[in-house]
Design brief:
- The complex is a heterodimer of chains A (329) and B (244).
- Chain A has 329 residues and is mainly alpha-helical.
- Chain A is built from 15 helices and four strands.
- In chain A, the strands form two sheets. Chain A has a two-stranded antiparallel sheet with strand order 1-4. Chain A has a two-stranded antiparallel ribbon with strand order 2-3.
- In chain A, strand 2 and strand 3 form a beta hairpin.
- In chain A, helix 2 packs across helix 12, helix 3 runs parallel beside helix 5 and helix 3 packs across helix 9.
- Chain B has 244 residues and is α/β, with parallel strands linked by helices.
- Chain B folds into two domains: 160 residues, P-loop containing nucleotide triphosphate hydrolases (Rossmann fold); 76 residues, no CATH class.
- Chain B contains nine helices and ten strands.
- In chain B, helix 3 packs across helix 4 and helix 3 packs parallel to helix 5.
- Chain B is globular and about 55 Å long.
- Classes of the chains: A mainly alpha (329), B alpha/beta (244).
- The complex binds adenosine-5'-diphosphate and magnesium ion (MG).
Chain lengths: 329, 244
C-alpha cells in the first residue's frame, strides 16, 4: 500500500473510533483515549531512533515537555489553534533533537543514552527556573469548554482527541514510510554495524541526525496540546518519568523493528494503564510497565511481533524480510 | 600508467604502539597487487587507513588523482574504494540479499546519478550472490551462514559498490582448495573488467597465482615491493616469515 493510501485507511479507522466514542457520549473515553493516542505518537517517535537505528533515548520526556512548554509560551503571547501549536512544538523539539544528535553523534551505546538523560535533566532545570512559564509553580491554561466549527459544537476534549488521532495516524504513516525506504535500510545498517555501514557508503552521521530530529519532532508534537489537556502544567508532570519509561517500554514490548510494534505496545500498555488508574491507582502504572518490560526483555526480546513471527510463521529467528516500496531520492 | 592509489608516508599509532610507519605504496590503474606479512604486521590497519575506517596521523592518501585525507569512510566508498573486512561484519538483522542491497542503495546510485529500480536492484543482488556461490542463501539470515560463507558475503558486498579499487582482506581463510581457486579466478575476471585489486592473503598459492606485484609488511614497515617471485626470495622477507 502506498503511503497516501495507508494514511487514508488509518485515518478512516481513527474516524470510526472517534464516531463510536461520540455515540457512547462519555467524556472519560476521550480523556483516556487521548492518552493512548499520545503514547502511540511518543512510542513511534522513540522507535524511529531507538528501534530503527538502535540508539536508546532516555530523554523522551524532555522532548515531550518542550512541546508542551512551547504551547505555554505561545499561549501567553498569542494563542493559536492546536494544529499550529503542534507544528511549533514539533519544530522546537525537532531542533533540540538535531542539536542533541549533533552533540552526541560520536557517543555509542550506553554513553548516548546517558547523554539523553543528562539533556532531560538540564532542560527540566532550565524550565523550573524560568518564571515566564511559571517556573516550579507551573502554569494554568484554561481549556475552553467547547469549540465551534460552522455552528457545530464539539466538546474541547473531543477536539483534542481528534487532533491527537490525526497526529497518531500521521506518525504511523511517517514511520512506515521511513521503514520501507532507502532511509530505513540505512537506519537498519546503523543498528547492525556502523563501521560496515560506512564501508557500504551509508552516511551514518547524517542519517543519525535525521533520526534524532524526527524522533524529537514527533515527541514535541505529541506534547504540544498537553497543557490544554491537563489544564495546569507543572515541570514535574511535563517531564514525568512515565513518558520516558513508556516511550521505551511500548516499542520494546510491541516489537521495535516495525511501525506496528509501537502501535501494539502503546494500545496495550496505554489501555492497561488507564484501566489500572481507574480500578487500582495511577501509582501502580509504572510498576506494571516495569514488570512487563522486564518480562519481555527476558522472554521475548523481539516483543509481541517477534513472538508472532516465531509461532505463526515458524521462524526461529526474527529476521524481518525488509520490503522496499520505492528507491526514491 | 597513472597511479590509482598513492599512499605516501602513512603512519598510524595506537596509544604508544606504532602500528604503521612511513608506508609508501603506489598502485596503478588495473593492477593486481598482493599484500602479505606476518600476523600483526599492520596489513588490516593499512586497509583501514586507506578506506577511512581509521584516520592516519601521518602521511597522505591520494585516490584517482585527488586526496581523500579527511574524507569519511562512506565518501571514500562513493569515490570507488571498497573493502571486505577480515572479521566478517554482516548486517545481522537483514537477509543476505538485503546485505548486498545496501551498497546498491547508497553507493551505486550516488555515482551513477540515477537510482536503480527495485527490480534492477533485486536482480543485481542475486547476480552478486551467485557470483560468490551464495545464490541459494539469498533469503537466509547471515547468522545462518558458516564463517566461510560470511567471508564470501563480505566479498560480494564489497563488489556490490562497483568499486574502482577492491581490497580483499583475507577473504579466503578456511576455504577449500577448489573454492580458493574459484575466488581467485573470479577476482582475476573482475580485474580484467577493469577493477584494480589489492589482495591480502596468507594462502601463498592464491597470492602467487593472483599477484602481478607483491608488497610485504613487517612490524608496521614495508620491507619489500616488487615482482612476486623475486620478493619471496628476498632474504629480509624470508627472515620476517621464519622469525614468526
Ligand atoms: N584498534 C586497535 N587498537 C589497538 N591496537 C590495534 C588496533 N588495531 C590493530 N591494532 C594492533 O596493530 C597491529 C597491527 O594489526 P593489524 O593491522 O590487524 O595486523 P594484520 O592485519 O597484518 O594481521 C597489531 O599488533 C594489533 O594488535
Ligand atoms: Mg589483518
Amino acid at each position: 500500500m502506498r503511503s497516501p493510501a495507508f494514511f487514508l485507511v488509518s485515518f478512516a479507522v481513527g474516524l470510526v473510533v472517534f464516531v463510536l466514542a461520540r455515540m457512547l457520549d462519555n467524556d472519560y473515553l476521550f480523556f483516556a483515549g487521548y492518552t493512548v493516542l499520545q503514547y502511540i505518537v511518543l512510542a513511534t517517535g522513540w522507535n524511529i531512533l531507538g528501534g530503527y537505528t538502535g540508539y536508546v533515548n532516555f530523554g523522551s520526556a524532555a522532548f515531550f515537555a518542550l512541546g508542551a512548554y512551547s504551547t505555554v509560551v505561545l499561549h501567553k503571547a498569542f494563542p493559536m489553534p492546536i494544529p499550529v501549536l503542534m507544528l511549533v512544538g514539533g519544530i522546537v523539539s525537532g531542533l533540540v533533537g538535531f542539536g542533541m544528535g549533533y552533540l552526541t553523534l560520536r557517543l555509542r551505546g550506553a554513553f548516548f543514552s546517558i547523554a539523553t538523560l543528562a539533556l532531560a535533566v538540564v532542560l527540566q532545570t532550565l524550565i523550573v527556573n524560568w518564571d515566564f512559564v511559571g517556573g516550579s509553580r507551573g502554569a494554568y491554561i484554561i481549556r475552553p469548554h467547547h469549540l465551534e466549527i460552522f455552528d457545530y459544537e464539539i466538546g474541547y476534549i473531543q477536539y483534542l482527541f481528534f487532533t491527537m488521532m490525526v497526529l497518531a495516524v500521521l506518525s504511523l504513516t511517517v514511520a512506515r514510510m521511513v521503514e520501507r525506504s532507502r532511509l530505513g535500510y540505512g537506519f537498519a545498517t546503523i543498528r547492525d554495524d556502523e563501521v560496515a555501514a560506512e564501508a557500504c557508503g551509508v552516511p551514518t552521521l547524517k542519517l543519525k541526525l535525521i533520526a534524532t530530529t524526527l524522533c524529537g519532532a514527533l515527541m514535541g508534537m505529541a506534547g504540544a496540546p498537553f497543557p490544554y489537556y491537563i489544564g495546569y502544567l507543572q515541570p514535574s508532570s511535563a517531564f514525568g518519568l512515565e513518558y520516558a519509561v513508556n516511550a521505551i517500554a511500548m516499542p520494546m514490548i510491541g516489537g521495535a523493528t516495525s511501525w506496528v510494534g509501537p502501535l501494539i505496545g502503546a494500545v496495550l500498555l496505554g489501555t492497561l494503564q488507564q484501566v489500572a488508574t481507574v480500578t487500582i491507582s495511577s501509582a501502580v502504572n509504572l510498576l506494571i510497565v516495569g514488570l512487563l518490560l522486564t518480562g519481555f526483555v527476558i522472554i521475548a526480546p523481539n516483543g509481541i511481533l517477534g513472538l508472532f513471527h516465531k509461532y505463526f510463521r515458524g521462524k526461529t529467528d526474527f529476521v524481518g524480510r525488509r520490503r522496499i516500496d520505492r528507491i526514491g531520492p | 600508467m597513472s597511479a590509482l592509489l598513492n599512499v605516501a608516508g602513512v603512519g598510524k599509532q595506537f596509544g604508544g604502539f606504532i602500528a604503521l610507519e612511513g608506508i609508501d605504496l603506489t598502485v596503478a590503474q588495473g593492477e593486481r597487487v598482493g599484500l602479505i606479512g606476518p600476523n600483526g604486521s599492520g596489513k588490516s590497519t593499512l586497509v583501514n587507513c586507506i578506506c577511512g575506517t581509521l584516520h592516519n596521523e601521518k602521511g597522505t592518501v591520494h585516490f584517482n588523482g585527488q586526496t581523500v585525507d579527511g574524507l569519511a569512510a562512506h565518501e571514500r566508498t562513493h569515490r570507488g574504494i571498497a573493502r571486505s573486512f577480515q572479521l566478517p561484519r554482516p548486517f545481522v538483522t537483514m537477509s543476505v540479499a538485503d546485505n548486498l542491497r545496501v551498497p546498491l542503495l547508497y553507493t551505486v546510485h550516488t555515482r551513477s546519478g540515477r537510482h536503480l529500480t527495485v527490480e534492477e536492484a533485486d536482480a543485481r543482488c542475486h547476480e552478486l550472490a551467485d557470483l560468490v556461490g551464495l545464490g541459494d542463501k539469498c533469503n537466509k539470515s547471515p547468522k545462518d551462514l558458516t564463517q566461510i560463507e560470511m567471508r564470501k558475503l563480505e566479498l560480494a558486498r564489497a563488489m556490490a559498490t562497483d568499486p574502482k579499487l577492491l581490497i580483499a582482506d583475507e577473504s579466503m581463510a578456511g576455504l577449500s582448495d577448489s573454492e580458493v581457486g574459484e575466488i581467485v579466478n573470479m577476482l582475476i575476471k573482475l580485474n580484467e573488467s577493469g577493477i584494480t585489486i589489492i589482495m591480502i592473503e596468507h594462502i601463498m598459492r592464491a597470492v602467487m597465482s593472483f599477484s602481478q606485484r607483491l608488497v610485504v609488511l613487517d612490524s608496521g614497515k614495508k620491507i619489500a615491493d616488487g615482482k612476486p617471485d623475486e620478493v619471496i626470495r628476498n632474504p629480509e622477507v624470508e627472515r620476517a616469515y621464519l622469525g614468526q
